[in-house]
Amino acid sequence: MKRVMMIGRVSCGKTTLCQRLVGDPLVYKKTQTVEIIGQAIDTPGEYAENRRLMRGLTVSAVDADLIVFLQSCVDGECSFSPGQASMFGAPAVGVVTKTDLAPDDASKARARELLELAGVQKVFLVSSVTGEGIAEFADFLQTEQASAKQNG
C-alpha cells in the first residue's frame, strides 16, 4: 500500500479508517501527535482545524505518496479551504466517512462537494464500522501502489 497521509477534523474518522485498513480492532483513541499506522500517517485533527498548526501537515506530507482528505458526512463544518489539496506535492483523494450515520443522501453529497472544492481528484464513501466502501478504497490504494512501482 502507498504511504498515505490522513487529514481531517477531530473525530472525522482518520484513526478508525487507518485501523480498518490494517485489520486492527476498531478502538477509539484521540490522536495527539502524528502517528504511523501501517502505511498511513495519521494526523491530529487540530492540525487541519488550526491554521497555525498547518505547517505540521506540510512537514508530515513530505513522506506521503498520497494525501487523503476526510470529511464526516455528519459534521456540518469543514476545515478545508478551496483548492487546499494543491498545497501538497502528492496527489489528493477524498473520503466521506461515517456513511452509516448519515441522516440522508444529501449529507453525503454535501461532504463530497466539500472535498471536491478542496481539490481532491477522486472521492470514496466509507463506513469504517460497517465496512461499506472500504474494499473499494483499499483496492484503489493497492492499484495506486502497483502503478507507482511500474512508473518508478
TrEMBL record:
<comment type="similarity">
    <text>Belongs to the EutP/PduV family.</text>
</comment>
<dbReference type="GO" id="GO:0006576">
    <property type="term" value="P:biogenic amine metabolic process"/>
</dbReference>
<keyword id="KW-0547">Nucleotide-binding</keyword>
<dbReference type="InterPro" id="IPR012381">
    <property type="entry name" value="EutP_PduV"/>
</dbReference>
<dbReference type="GO" id="GO:0005524">
    <property type="term" value="F:ATP binding"/>
</dbReference>
<protein>
    <submittedName>
        <fullName>Ethanolamine utilization protein, EutP</fullName>
    </submittedName>
</protein>
<dbReference type="InterPro" id="IPR027417">
    <property type="entry name" value="P-loop_NTPase"/>
</dbReference>
<dbReference type="Pfam" id="PF10662">
    <property type="entry name" value="PduV-EutP"/>
</dbReference>
